Fold this protein.
Amino acid sequence: MPTVGHPSALSPAYPHIELTLPDDWTVEPGGDALLRAVHGRGGDLAPELTAYVHTSREASTDDLVDDLAGEAEGRDEGEADETFVVELEGREWTGLNVSWIEDGEPVYLVHLVTAVEAGEVVHLVRVTGRIAGPDSEQDYEAVQSILETAVVDPMGGGA
């Protein structure tokens, strides 16, 4: 009878993901995300940062970015910009900005995705900033500056 466990060859330990937050941000329980941080003003329109790891044998960063663009385009007035590439701490990330209208307010997401080889599989690490509401322009700049601090250690570790 086969058994399954974590970590294992097809379910390896996740890499360590780190973002440097300004003092007016708070760390929240991750929920379905590996990490979650919210601007201290709180509320539904407060900027939010999350990190996820998608593990696959075959998917690439392009596949995940295409899925994220498709999800946005399926929403009310959903749009996806062209992808871009940025290097952070020696690691290449594929970026994607998407937007849509939710409850009458514009919502903007900034996704950064990078691939981390993990033996028989690849971890697709995604960090996402969510911005909504009347302070979107100012909040976008703050979220972007935090995302630019993203560090991924394939060997895991951390606190």
Observations:
- The mean pLDDT is 93.
- DSSP finds two helices and ten strands in the chain.
- The helical segments are 61-73, 136-147.
